[in-house]
Amino acid sequence: MSRVHEQKARQMITDHRGTIRVRDYAAIGGSSPDGTLESRLSAMADALWDRLAPTGVSWIGFYFGPGFNLEDGRVVGPDEMLLGPCRDKPACSPIGLHGACGQAWRSREPLVVRDVRDLGQNYVACDPRDQSEVVVPFFDAGGKCLGVLDADSWEVGAFTPRDADELRRAMVRAGVSSR
Questions:
Q1: Which sign does the torsion angle of CA 113, 114, 115, 118 carry?
Q2: Which domain holds residue 127?
């Protein structure tokens, strides 16, 4: 990674109390571990949690999209998403496609939700303390959207489009997404 991109990958976040925290995305996903996609996603969830929890992230995990074939033989249904590797507390599963994760999966584009209350009935509330989220799709080598990475925060406005872009780049570096 170039020094310029490495500096850009460090994002300063100011929380609602005025505390400045740095999200160091450059240190995430530096090598592609061997193994199945699910094992790589598990390693990625751990790495993301270790780096991002101190910066106001309250939960991070992956959801598999419709049609995904899980290692245990299950296939995700056509109108749902199933929870994959996550940290650091349980989450809802299955979830419908109406929430932020489903919207990002259907559009194949990242989604930054500044305030989850703006989603109204389309918000899937696994933890009522969550106030914002960022959702980033991940893709196989052929460009098929396999699912999404979802990060939540108890703070309104905790994520920006830059977070979404840096998370996308980290997934590519870790070998869990092709783009």
A1: negative
A2: 3-173
The tally of domains found in the chain comes to: 1
Reported pTM: 0.87
61 CB neighbour count, 10 Å cutoff:
26
Model confidence at 21: pLDDT above 80: no
% residues pLDDT > 90 (the chain):
70
Per-residue confidence (pLDDT) for residue 2, from 0 to 100: 45
Tokens representing 63 are: 């959801």
Q: What is the CATH number of the domain that holds 98?
A: 3.30.450.40
In a domain, 179, yes or no: no
CB 21 within 8 A of CB 15: yes
Is 13 part of a structural domain of the chain? yes
* 178, part of any domain: no
Q: Long-range contacts: 30-37, Cβ < 8 Å, 24+?
A: 30/173, 30/174, 31/173, 31/174, 32/173, 32/174, 32/175, 33/174, 33/175, 36/71, 37/146, 37/176
Residue 141 has pLDDT above 50, yes or no: yes
